[in-house]
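User: Please fill in residues for this 294-position structure.
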């Protein structure tokens, strides 16, 4: 089921520092089951999540998608020289989405794709999220990947990307047909943290702060990864999710064969493509299911 252009509402959300965040609201069909924010992956624009948002709204959720600052519709006209911190995506941009969609009468849910599953741990208003379902969220370290993928990723980080970033002044992912262009600070910190087995929890510059932030989270989480997601296999997911040490975390390993898909059909990106629609039903059902404490 798809929407007309008039139904989807284009929004501009002001972050706490005043930066304008481009967003889209997909209103629920019929009675509202919940409010739902989609927090995207690094360098992935909100348009990528449109089909999932349309599907979830048809199932009774008010769905909000948005672009982090410096990405997609939230990018400045000139990305070279644009100043920001990687953490701004969570602490300011996602936080603005939470403030906008939060309601005292309807539960607020979060779907986090890759970085979006990291962002929950840095949210200043995380207590407003009732449940979180992450897909493909892991530590990002190449050592958790199979050998062939590991070598490919190391080549990108150590050979390809430095040359392109030195030339452009930002990471030109659109040129590589890998996603949206990204600001320099995002590239630098992403590269640094992906070089560490426990991601930023191994970074002496921020690890204690991050551990304290993540320990504050008590939102129930389902952390799912596909067994053919070579960038976020179960070992990578588990290492990262251990830092949500005070939250109930359900770990879900998705075998593509469960959904009559070939191995390789899901990977790191296809969680949100139509091929994975049966998985969408599982995600949305979990949000509204009774908790074990009820």
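Assistant: Residues filled in for all 294 positions:
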């Amino acid at each position: 089921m798809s929407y007309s252009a008039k139904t989807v509402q284009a929004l501009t959300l002001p972050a706490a520092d005043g930066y304008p965040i481009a967003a889209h609201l997909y209103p629920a069909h019929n009675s509202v089951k919940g409010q739902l924010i989609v927090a995207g992956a690094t360098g992935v624009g909100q348009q990528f999540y449109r089909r999932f948002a349309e599907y979830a709204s048809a199932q009774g959720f008010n769905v909000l998608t948005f672009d982090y600052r410096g990405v997609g519709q939230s990018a400045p006209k000139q990305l070279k020289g644009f100043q920001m911190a990687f953490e701004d995506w969570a602490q300011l941009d996602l936080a603005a989405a939470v403030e906008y969609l939060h309601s005292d009468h309807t539960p607020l849910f979060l779907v986090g794709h890759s970085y979006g599953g990291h962002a929950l741990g840095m949210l200043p208003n995380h207590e407003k999220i009732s449940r979180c379902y992450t897909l493909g969220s892991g530590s990002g370290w190449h050592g958790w990947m199979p050998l062939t993928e590991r070598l490919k990723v190391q080549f990108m980080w150590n050979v390809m990307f430095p040359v392109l970033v030195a030339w452009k002044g930002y990471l030109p992912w659109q040129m590589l047909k890998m996603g949206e262009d990204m600001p320099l600070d995002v590239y630098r910190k992403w590269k640094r943290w992906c070089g560490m087995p426990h991601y930023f929890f191994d970074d002496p510059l921020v690890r204690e702060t991050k551990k304290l932030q993540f320990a504050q989270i008590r939102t129930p989480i389902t952390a799912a990864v596909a067994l053919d997601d070579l960038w976020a296999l179960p070992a990578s997911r588990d290492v990262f999710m251990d830092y949500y040490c005070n939250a109930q975390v359900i770990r879900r390993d998705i075998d593509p064969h469960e959904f009559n898909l070939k191995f390789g059909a899901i990977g790191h990106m296809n969680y949100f493509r139509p091929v994975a629609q049966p998985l969408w039903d599982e995600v949305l059902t979990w949000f509204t299911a009774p908790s074990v404490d009820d």
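For context: The beta strands are 9-14, 20-26, 34-39, 61-66, 108-113, 131-135, 221-226, 249-254.
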